[in-house]
């Protein structure tokens, strides 16, 4: 019966469990010397799953989360491994000024790439509602009209990013970090993005987008008097404007945003993708999609470098 041995991996061949010697190379580095299987050199590929059978035996190997599938030929016992590597999931941060279209792009990105959408504000509100220790501490600061300390928010974000779905599928961190201290806290937790997307929109257009926004208190839908007007007069009559959606207040918010984002960019300058956010949402997403597709394809190619 043919046998294949690897380092530090239990495998089954013909129903018997064996433990290879510790001096063997790692399973993804090589198979056994040709003499143990065949004089013909086998091909080795990365694989996310392994399950192979020949006419005489079934062999399965697992190393970490990579599974290999050797197959023994009928006449020569040649080992052939067929595999498809699963690339490392994407880790993305996205930033943009108020009314830059960040929310829309987050929806489009997560829909296509299957990433876990993580918004710090939503996490904070959920934490408070849950009554957790961090939630209670955050609520105390908010009730006093104070900002929630960075270490509390960073801890909440860290715990979310460490959940299995985010680790397996990748994540899209929305609007966070917003300051150097927040970015530093994430770096201390060893969270680094593959891409930091920055939506750039001229200030005049941002002001126009914000000042023209209106809220329907009945449905919760957001309209815009110019770009997305209400369907009828009945809806138009009940629309309201947020208290901070005035030109004076939005300009103040924009100044704060620009100051903070410049500090954050200094940490992520090597992975920053600046996107023109003044065009249509489809055109904005096309710019983002082009960059992410290239990154994803490069990662797939890298993960298969051991393929022969």
Q: Report the structural category.
A: alpha/beta
CATH architecture of the largest domain: 3-Layer(aba) Sandwich
CATH topology of the largest domain: Rossmann fold
Number of domains: 2
What sequence of helices (H) and strands (E) makes up the elements? EEHEEEEEEEHEHHHHEHEHEEHHEH
Could you explain how this protein is built, in words?
The structure is a single chain. The longest helix has 23 residues, at 281-303. The protein has helices at residues 34-37, 102-113, 120-130, 133-143, 150-161, 164-169, 180-188, 203-211, 233-238, 247-268, 281-303, and strands at 11-13, 16-18, 52-53, 58-59, 61-63, 66-68, 70-72, 79-81, 91-96, 116-119, 171-174, 195-200, 213-215, 222-224, 272-276. It has 308 residues and is α/β, with parallel strands linked by helices. Helix 2 runs parallel beside helix 11 and helix 3 (120-130) crosses helix 4. The chain is globular and about 60 Å long. The strands form 6 sheets. Strands 10-11-9-12-15 form a 5-stranded parallel sheet, sandwiched between helices. A two-stranded antiparallel ribbon has the order 1-2. The chain has a two-stranded antiparallel sheet with strand order 3-4. It has 2 domains: 11-81, no CATH class; 91-303, Rossmann fold (3-Layer(aba) Sandwich), CATH 3.40.50. The two termini are 26 Å apart. Residues 19-28 have a biased composition (Pro residues). This is adenylate kinase. Belongs to the adenylate kinase family. Monomer.
């Amino acid at each position: 019966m043919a046998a294949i041995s690897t380092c530090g991996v239990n495998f089954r061949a013909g129903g018997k469990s064996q433990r290879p010697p510790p001096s063997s190379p790692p399973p993804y580095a090589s198979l056994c010397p040709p003499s143990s299987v065949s004089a013909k050199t086998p091909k080795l590929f990365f694989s996310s799953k392994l399950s192979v059978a020949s006419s005489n035996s079934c062999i399965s190997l697992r190393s970490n989360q990579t599974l290999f599938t050797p197959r023994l030929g009928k006449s020569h016992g040649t080992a052939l491994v067929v595999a498809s590597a699963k690339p490392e999931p994407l880790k993305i941060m996205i930033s943009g000024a108020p009314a830059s279209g960040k929310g829309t792009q987050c929806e489009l990105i997560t829909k296509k790439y299957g990433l876990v959408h993580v918004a710090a504000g939503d996490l904070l509100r959920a934490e408070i509602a849950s009554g957790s220790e961090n939630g209670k501490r955050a609520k105390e600061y908010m009730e006093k009209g104070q900002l929630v300390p960075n270490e509390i928010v960073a801890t909440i974000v860290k715990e979310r990013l460490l959940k299995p779905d985010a680790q397996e599928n990748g994540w899209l961190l929305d609007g966070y970090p917003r300051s150097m201290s927040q970015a530093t806290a994430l770096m201390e937790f060893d969270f680094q993005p593959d891409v930091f997307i920055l939506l750039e929109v001229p200030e005049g257009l941002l002001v126009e987008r914000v000042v023209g926004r209106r809220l329907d208190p009945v449905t919760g839908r957001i309209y815009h008097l110019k770009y997305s007007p209400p369907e009828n007069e009945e809806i138009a009559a009940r629309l309201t404007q947020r208290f901070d959606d005035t030109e004076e207040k939005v300009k103040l918010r924009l100044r704060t945003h620009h100051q903070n984002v410049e500090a954050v960019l200094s940490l992520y300058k090597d992975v920053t993708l600046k996107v023109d956010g003044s065009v249509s949402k489809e055109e904005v997403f096309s710019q983002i999609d082009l960059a992410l597709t290239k990154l994803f394809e490069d990662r797939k190619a890298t993960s298969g470098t051991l393929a022969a």
